[in-house]
Amino acid sequence: MPASNSVPTLTIGGFLGAGKTTLVNHLLTQADGKRVVVFVNDFGAINIDHDLIETVEEDRIALSNGCVCCSLNDDLLRAMVTFCENDRPDLFAIEASGVADPKALSATLQTLQQAGQAHLQCRIYVMDAAQFGGLDYADSEDLIDHAAASDLILINKSDLVPKSRIEEIAQLLARSAPNARRRTTSQAELSWADALALHSRSPWENVGQVSRHDVNSRFTTAAFKNVPPLSKTRLDAVIDLMKDTCLRAKGSLRVDDPQPLGCRIQLVGRHVDLTTVPEGEDLLPQLVVIGWSSRLVTSEFSELLGADAVISP
Length: 313
Hints:
This protein is an alpha/beta fold. 31% of the residues lie in helices and 29% in strands.
């Protein structure tokens, strides 16, 4: 349990352009008498009403409603401690950079938890629904990992994509981030009341203490190497099986029906990208799949691919 005077803290993550700054703007303008200190990466991106600005310093903007907007830098902990000791706010909010790992941020803030000065209230992740399908495999993998480490996921910019895309993303998150709550928004709309009603499911003192065995027992990672050429029918069956049982998959395969060709295949959730490899380009036929241990049966892939599975330890 946090100390009685511990300051609740929200962390806000998401890729560049997902809507983190829009969310910060919402929170700053609806403080409702609460004194909020917000740490952001870029002052220039925060569209603050000039009537609200009281003073401007090199790394700080004070607002007439009592809120303070600060630059996020290497002295984050020191800045938060200074506020706690000299001018304790009602709330902290930290907008992480687009590539920051929310788990690492939570671990960094562990010191404040132990000192009884601040506690993690909620980790919010803003996901750009319009951007998601256009990310490459590595970025999609990072996005899902970061979302899975959050308490609340905003599926933002829902007005820019068809309903079927929102449903596809929701299904992916239900499988890969089952413990996080989800909300669909168009402009990252979220009230302080809704954010503070959530409580982080993982206390800071437990961050980073999940054993490798516990993680590996939940997921299965299997590699299939030297896969022989597949028929078009068998490739379609492999794709269907991946959609039904995998969270992620990546590899290169050869198809000999109706004519020989090579292809690269990537899957995130149920979204599959299949691209043709230019003729003459080297291709190593293999496939790596990742899924929940309770759903992914490697023998089914071995049968379709004609290759044995190598299970990662």
